[in-house]
Amino acid sequence: MPIVERDPWREQYFAGVACPEDLIVPTDDEHAWELYPQHRWVYNKLLVAESQGLAAAPHGVPPRRFPVFSKPIYNLHGMGVGGRVVEAADELALSFEAGHMWMELLAGEHVSTDVAVIGGEPRWWRHTVAKPLGEGMFDYWTVEAAARPELEAYCGQWLGAHLGAYTGFVNLETLGGRIVEAHLRFADQWVDLYGGAAWVESVVRLYRDGAWRFDDSGRRGGYSVVLFGAHGPQYRHPPPGIVAELLAKPAISSLQITFHQGLPAAAHAMPPGGFRLAIINCWDLEAGLEARSRLALRFWSTPHRLRRRHPQAGTGGDETSSL
Known about the structure:
Elements (H helix, E strand, L loop, with lengths): L28 H7 L9 H6 L5 E3 L9 E5 L11 E3 L2 H6 L5 E5 L5 E9 L2 E14 L2 E7 L5 H14 L5 E8 L2 E6 L7 H4 L1 H14 L12 E8 L10 H8 L4 E6 L17 E8 L2 H12 L10 E3 L8 E3 L3
Antiparallel strand pairs: 1-4, 2-3, 2-4, 5-6, 5-8, 6-7, 7-10, 8-9, 10-12, 11-12, 13-14
């Protein structure tokens, strides 16, 4: 296994790729925190906001205007844990929590950007756009093939100014073109859509040799469709035959069952709105949504959490599925 992977459902993307035994490539923030102590400040969301001139402060310092977005200053588990919009001063006072912060409420697209960086200089970019469901959940992500010059210019300047001594991958989450989170790793959710084993080999070369070489001429867009269930039930994995049947579809690239069956549901870090059950990576959105609908039938509590785009719907034509 060439890459340190906390989640067993993502080991499928790294198996079989050669890597030196003494090379550590992090995919989780806890490992990156240990590996790069001189750069771990990027996990402080208050410092990230301040580095861009955004209004932000710890709980206890009142905002000058509302609404604001409240969240933990540090959150190495991700999944939007503890994040929410606060509309007024009395609401913030009632929800005061040590270790949390507020920042100005940003609007616009939520983009996840992976960057291969050598000495603070970007060498490769890939952008993924979220379609949110609310309460920290996402319906699906669109893994874009196209570049985003304006966003790359802004993020590239920030990387050069603040991570000039860093070589490796950085994942930046932006809202409306401003950075809200930074991670010293790549997003391992859609490795297969980036280029599979050939891309992973390039990642190993970056961390081993400090060089980036990857033939990206075959780049194409894809989708990462998410299935959520309700909080509370103790879920079980679907039968392997169902997973194999879905993976046999040409448009389906991979499928992740994203929870530990042997752990209590409450032991998983999940967004406020629901419990993430699965992720389906695909080359065709309709195929991914259909696969999600079929998989949802195996989880009795998921129908009211599943949202599906109607084939005939236009912009904004999402509707709740009636499974």
